[in-house]
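User: For a benchmark we're assembling, each entry needs the component sequences followed by a predicted structure for the full assembly. Here are entry 17's components. Please fill in the structure.
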Amino acid sequence: MSLEPATVAPLLAEFPFEWNYIRSIVRVSLYVSITAVALSTAFSLPVALLVGFREFPGKTLLASIINTGMGFPSVVVGLVVLFTVSNEGPLGSWDLVFTPEAMILSQFVLAAPVITGVSLAAVSSVEQNVRDAAYAMGGTRFDVALVTIKEARYGIATAVLAGFGRAISEVGSVLIVGGNIANADGTSVTRTLTTAIQLEARQGRFRTAMILGAILVALVLLVNALVVRLGNGGGGRYG
Amino acid sequence: MTLDTIDVHHGYGTETVFDGVSLSVRRGEVLAIIGPSGVGKSTLLRLLALFDAPDQGTVRYGGEPVWQIPEWQRLEYRRRIGMVFQEASLFDASVRRNAEYGLRVRQSWPDRIRHELATLVGRTNGTGDAIDALDTVGLREKADQDASSLSGGEAQRVAFARALAYEPDVLLLDEPTSDLDPRNTAVIEDAVLEAKNRGIGVGIATHDMHQAERIADRVAVLLENDVIEIGSPETVFENPADERTRKFIDGELVY
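Assistant: Structure for entry 17:
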């Protein structure tokens, strides 16, 4: 089936029920992935700066953990997060099983190593003499960290987008911790683009699955286009 | 105001760099530090700029032993010192943003955030002091250019303006003209003399004896882990008290 806009548009118009359904899935997907990536970034940047510029015991081990985490199987992450939020787990009292928040937690675990690893490479490439200059001009350690982030901004943006790509296209962990739930009226509770595609395909509703797939591919393509653009030196410098 | 080191011993690992160095940078004068490559001129400037604490001995600013006070108090002393490195080390931003950096970090956080927001929407004309400093090095008209578009000489002049913009009491220059052509060297030397006339104390590490003769009020000779001689350029270059100084100046000492 062709996915030209001319073919897809009447398809959407014909299926108002599916359109609401799809819209709610996109909303849940974006809410979960954007929140997870925002939290991962807030966590990862200080860690990248710390590992990049401070000496401390266990630094090599931490760097290895970050690198291993970049390729961690998502179903295993889902399993561990599900156990953590289940009644038997340490966060059992928070009642997070099959909620978007549990999915945020699992995507955080998946995206954080990617964002930390790529940011670490970016901040490590900032020359020491530029950092020294910031310090010499009267900057505090915090000012030096800010200068480092600014100098590495294209690399860090690439890291964030790569983390987003990992989060939004991931299926294993959100299926386990979210449960792929929709309300009776057909709107999504914990159903994301990926888990919905899996379900729709299994039930033979290929049109819906294809539309969801096209939206997901469009999102990932958009993110990758941004990554390539940033990798080429960014879209203009700031003034 | 004087910035001085008293009997400073310093090294890296087992290697001794300084074995009891004492010297001072005074307001309104240019002190040139000369010596062969690898003798520790940059290390000495880093100690004077309060980057690193000496292994032993004292670094004082206006009589205050700066490594015996808390870091937040030391910051106030650090902020009275400007430094220019051998490489320009400019930030990836406009010339104006580079020149303003020292002023920005001295602002309160609400002012800084306001300034950043104004820059984002393109509503800033820069701080007067930064533009004046760019004027001193003849680069006012390049304020809105990207720093990466400058030539090596222009970049170094911006680095000088960046250190001058916040009116430090002391300016430390680490071989600032070693990679520059004569014209850019002349601009920097004129700016050094102008800074001195404004009462700024300048410490400059240099390979270039002629430069030391041209701009220095005093010359310190750093050799064999110590300052072996300090005096006027006439004395040091024409009638040195230490035989090693004469040999170094005549090129007889090979390191």
